[in-house]
Design goal:
single chain, alpha/beta, Alpha/beta knot, Trp Operon Repressor, Chain A, five-stranded parallel beta sheet, three-stranded mixed beta sheet, 10 strands, elongated, binds adenine
Amino acid sequence: MIKFTIITLFREAIEPYLKASMMEKATRKGLAEFDFVDLRDFGLGPHKSVDDTPYGGGDGMLLRCEPVFKAIESVKAKDASAKVILPTPVGEVWNQEMAREFAERETSSHYIILCPHYEGYDERILSIVDYKISLGKYVLTGGELPALAIIDSVVRLIPGVLGGEKSAEIESFSDGDNLEYPQYTRPEDFRGMKVPEILLSGNHGEIAKWREEHSGKA
Ligand code: ADE
């Protein structure tokens, strides 16, 4: 069982994805669990404020330490072993190998994903973060999309999520630098675009060779 607790101001931006398709299946089978913490609940003052202007000046608002620390501590009070992930464009760029490591790390693991929003966060928040993860060299509005990408790429690798005996086979194609071969389904001829002859041959040895040759090696 892998558990993700997502600390966010925008639960509604994340939840529908986790209630559909493979993520829903993983939850139903008891292989994954998703929980939410509303950062606003830990906000300061009558307006439950979670952000403030930067010292030294500059545009925008930064996530404050107090609500973030309190939110994370509230989760860790129930499970001290939970590890904190911070999606940030300056983190380590996420890849398939990292997803596999997270999926294989322990049979029972709990990750807290802190979704920053606004223009950034107080640097002292990094003192309670275990993993800084970037989706790539571009800037998103918040941590919600990265949280979903991280969760999806990890959960699909957990045995039983993609489907029983086939998952090991599928995994062999998910090394990241060994992308899957081109695939086709019916019809054989679509508007003059034909399925490669070899795939219709029934010759499994030749098909395996063709697939190996055509798997997009990086
Ligand atoms: N937050 C904003 N942009 C991001 C990115 N590219 N990766 C992870 N977190 C982010």
